[in-house]
Specification:
alpha/beta; Nucleotidyltransferase, domain 5; 4 domains; two-stranded antiparallel ribbon; disordered C terminus
Length: 355
Amino acid sequence: MISASDREKAITLIKEAVQAGAREEVACKELGISLRTLQRWRSDATPLEDQRPLAKRPVPHNKLSQEETQEILTVVNQPEYQSLPPSQIVPMLADKGIYMASESTFYRILRKYNLQHHRGFSKAPKSKPISTHCATGPNQVWMWDITWLPGPVRGIYFYLYLIIDLFSRKVVAWDIWLEESAENASQLVRRAILSEKHSVSPKPLVLHSDNGSPMKGATLLETLYQLGITPSRSRPRVSNDNPYAESIFRTCKYRPNYPMGGFATLTEARTWVLAFVKWYNLEHRHSGLNFLTPHQRHSGIDKAVLENRRKIYERAKAAHPERWTRGVRNWTLEDEVWLNPERITSNDSVNKETS
């Protein structure tokens, strides 16, 4: 719910934007509200203050009485049940021929009276914050993962290890092995450092991955510490925290010449992936790079290429201006690339704009 003061600020800002020539609907969109919401706020028939907190709602007909609530509190605090969750208390009472309320009602009452806490000697679970990193140049943040490649028969796989750069999306190192292990990952990281040694950024290098066992192996971690690389991992069971690695695997497996029937040998798999990596780095126009190749972005010629495109479009516009009513295409790229950037909700957008 948005407070009355924030509503007034939003109405004032939109009014100023419209007076400056902006469309009202676009101004509303910038603040994260709909045009209908703005119209409701400005209506004399609608109170400016949100009335929902002041509404008088009828008591639910199925609500527990105070005596029933107190009876539940008495039961859960008995020595027999005081260290058990409602998921066990309710069945135990049922075995005695007693039904007081559902498990969800038990949980709701315990939370209301501050009786629902972590039990036992184990640590209480904590939500892990999302890992986010920013790259302003190549070789500042790398991401890596492992995917299965089909083998000669069903149930046999080859394992593709692949490291890509966040800033340029270039594949800086890859290999295929017969098993997943931290030792193989350690070799791959050393190979990536050697291949990029001439252009490693003075900024500390971050290597991001998911939470697989090869990513957390002692051999790999020791290698990272020796090389001065900072390990970073996704939240448990959240594959979206490593989106760029997942994306390149999809690109790989959806190539027209990808052998859906499987690779006959390890050598055949390495030969195919070698051709794919060359194509991806040198020929593939990446949509996330404004259709530059990863090599162009990684080698630093991206600005010259984009400037050349802009000039070509400007000449085309000068030749036929009537065909360019929406202006020239934006051939620029952001200087910062974020892994898992923080998302701003609509309410945060309103508060930010009106503050």
